[in-house]
Amino acid sequence: MPYVAVKGGEQAIENAETLLRSRRRGDSAIPELTLDQIEQQLTLAIERVMCEGSLYDRELAALAIKQSWGDLVEAIFLLRAYRTTLPRLYYSQPLDTSKMQIQRRISSIFKDVPGGQSLGPTFDYIHRLLDFKLMAEAEVPTAAAAEAITEPVPRVIDTLDREGLMQAEEEDGGTRGQGDKGNLLQTLSASCSDLTREPLSFPAKRDARLQNLARADEGFLLSLAYSTQRGYGRNHPFAGEIRMGEVEVVICPEELGFEVAIADITITEVQMVNQFKGTKELPAQFTRGYGLTFGYNERKAMSMALVDRAMRAEEFGETVQGPAQNVEFVLSHSDNVEAQGFVQHLKLPHYIDFQSELNLVRKMRQQQLAIQNSK
Predict the structure, then answer these.
(1) Which of 100, 180, 304, 318 gives 313 a disulfide partner, CB atoms 3.0 to 4.6 angstroms apart?
(2) Residue 308: closest CA among 323, 320, 322, 325
(3) Model confidence pLDDT, tens digit, residues 236-263
(4) What is the DSSP letter of 92?
(5) Residue 116, by phi and psi: left (phi above 0), alpha (psi -120 to 50) or beta?
(6) Contact 157, 147 (CB under 8 A)
């Protein structure tokens, strides 16, 4: 793209950067935010930045949020850029979410589920009223103590699986077959797609689509998910299960020859259940949409699951009639790092481009005027 060289702009750029840092700091009479404060008190922001930045590091996410004035999209950009400088030492084994240490687990399709329902921390039942007590230094409330759930909690979807009511999924797309008790990621191997190292290509298998959605902008996915429920995706979903908690990350170094647990991370997993009327070959049954994110990121995971199911329209012989069902449209426009870069590049100099457009418009106007005068 042609640009005109700008002379004498270096000092202006340095001044702009200095002003940026000054504005970020704000009034120096007010104590500066620490990374610990951001990490501990802006948890949901931290976890969104880690998820869409594709890097699970709470301290670095806090630093990115502080540096970006709290602009989460800019923070995601910063974290993603830093991530590219890190070496890839190992691939972890697929997460086994059936062994999750549950902090929250609900299902909207059964009143009573094996293992029970656990509300956990949620905004679902609070009044949306400003709490002015937060303007003062109020005491921290003490949460009711409960025994930790250490035993594996069975998945709600497995109940439908056992009755043969869930559609069996193919292994090659990174999904699971009927009766397999693992989650959708357990069949992935080191040979699966890796969008952090390979460009997205079409047609995209489901493992690549799920990776793309996990890194996608939450607002974009939320809008697409909403569109599917309003008639632009033939979705009539039920929240089969939403669970949040800690899972163990395991690697298997070749030099050791056995698995080693390296961390416990918080994730959110969602399985949506959708009705499927069947085909000549398949009986009426339920299908699923799947979402998994870093941290407590329930809205994103739900949106991901709805869009995942919408993009499976061709697989189930459904008519593609909404944006969320168009795989290429969704995957090509969901990344906020790419989107913000392409939009914001319009602020850069485009003098030559515009001059050519200006000359063209002037020429067209002269031709139109000449035609009018000839009449």
Answers:
(1) 318
(2) 325
(3) 889 999 999 999 999 999 888 899 999 9
(4) B
(5) left
(6) no
